[in-house]
Amino acid sequence: MAKQTGLLQFTGKLGNVIGYRRNGSYFIRSMPDTVQQTTATRRASRDFGIASRKGKLIRRAITPHLAINPGGTLVNRLNKALITATRDRLPELKGFRFNPYTGVEQFFSLQPIITTGGILHIPAQKLWPPAKATHLEIVVVAVRINFAQRQITGRTESATTIDLSQPFNGAELAATVPGRGTLLVTLQVRAYEHGAVIENRRSKAADIIAVVVPATIKKQPVKVNSVPRVKRMLPYQSLSTTGKVVLSVPARQRE
């Protein structure tokens, strides 16, 4: 691994080398002559591809609506979180921080909750703002993503500002989106001092606080009533005194 020092820096393949970016710097490494793939490496490659596609959708849906800089580690951190979060475990993304240095829980003594009606409820409480902060800006970004079809199916935003010079009596903001797909709710908090954002990484946060996956409808097996087979019966047969079989033929057939 070597650091790129030229004027033109790149990522991806170039001849027999690979360029990539890490923490804002560009590096280069040589390509291996052969790649030995085992069952485990193929599975890991598949899981990484799935996580990368999901991560890209989540970033497209949420980050343009956040007013914080998530830094150069967002892609790797989100992909890593998604690799272990299969469809049934996507709620494990709850608590993911777009700002890795600060979480929204650091601003509240009582944590916000999502009600069954899709409302973000912040209880009345004593807030924990950063030093010098006069206001807190609260923004909720709720999105729906259909991961199977790779589509962002809906989005809504709501916001409020808390005056820290007054007692905080609680707040409620809309936090749901109608439609199909997985619901992800992100809460952003930024501290202000007399109308200006306090520009340090400890004074702002944006976390995924809720993940609701669509309910899975299990198909019940269809029960088929078993009807006994009915054999076609011949007309009544009678034996004559001679032992011969005499068929009873309907009158219409005799005509």
Automatic annotation (TrEMBL):
What is the name of the protein in this document?
Uncharacterized protein
